[in-house]
Design a protein that fits this description.
It is globular, with a radius of gyration of 19 Å. It has helices spanning about 5-30, 40-60, 70-105, 110-135, 145-170, 170-200, 210-245. About 85% of the residues lie in helices and about 0% in strands. It has one domain. The protein is built from seven helices and no strands. By secondary structure, the chain is mainly alpha-helical.
Length: about 250
């Protein structure tokens, strides 16, 4: 059994370091007053905000005395680690999304942008698998294998469904992203605040309904798919703008 409090301390340090990188990116974009950088700054700020929250939550967990002999304490630790991990993963993928947006903003070669997309998809997959295996820790008294399998399968189905819908309604989604992208990013920060509220609740003391972990997994995958569409949308819009300038 690994020491949850030590692990949380390490994650708190990592989140703090990454938050520093995010802040530096925001500062540089503002300093050089790069045109059309508001979207990138918004994404970076969302990532910075999430990393600060994650650092605080993991730091709070690391101060809890680890006692495997206390069932209530173990449930509290498991619950807090799950919520903090989701916020941390959301913040991390926002950082990678902002990186791809910066590639697009600076009109880097298509090969570099494609590589950035691949790295984002890989990061999204890794973090999704991490969340899928972490959420079952809510149920410390049960065998988590079955729930992990269910979360993986339902998550895979949801990815396929949302991918198909994004292709069917691509033009409508383009309009939504063009007009309300920063509001969508702000919505992600609101979600992280809601997760902090759940973290501060004592939900772990009762019997957590099975729908709750599915909901958490659903929301996280939805954010991944929104980010994926936003990257492709931004790339399409930038290519169209460049073509109009050439014409």
């Amino acid at each position: 059994m690994y020491d949850i409090t030590t692990m949380s301390s390490n994650y708190a340090n990592l989140a703090g370091i990454l938050a520093g990188f995010s802040f530096s990116g925001i500062y540089l974009l503002i300093e050089y007053e790069k045109r059309d950088s508001s979207e990138v700054i918004g994404i970076l700020f969302a990532g910075f905000f999430g990393l600060i929250l994650a650092a605080f939550l993991f730091s709070n967990i690391s101060r809890i005395s680890y006692d495997p002999g206390s069932p209530d304490l173990m449930k509290e630790l498991a619950f807090n680690v799950v919520i903090a991990s989701i916020i941390f993963c959301i913040a991390v993928i926002q950082m990678f999304v902002s990186l791809v947006f910066i590639f697009i903003l600076y009109r880097l070669p298509k090969l570099v942008i494609s590589l950035g997309k691949i790295i984002y998809y890989e990061t999204a997959l890794i973090t999704a698998m991490f969340i899928t295996t972490t959420i079952p820790k809510l149920y410390v008294d049960d065998n988590p294998a079955d729930l992990t399998k269910d979360l993986f399968l339902t998550g895979l189905v949801f990815v396929l469904v949302t991918y198909i819908l994004s292709k069917v309604f691509k033009r409508r989604l383009d309009l939504i992203f063009e007009k309300n992208f920063l509001q969508i990013v702000a919505g992600i920060t609101v979600l992280m605040v809601m997760l902090v509220g759940i973290y501060r609740s004592r939900l772990y003391l009762g019997e957590i309904p099975v729908i709750f972990p599915h909901f958490l997994n659903f929301v996280y995958i939805l954010i991944i798919m929104i980010n994926s569409f936003s990257i492709n949308h931004e790339h399409r819009m930038m290519m169209q703008k460049d073509q109009q300038e050439i014409d």
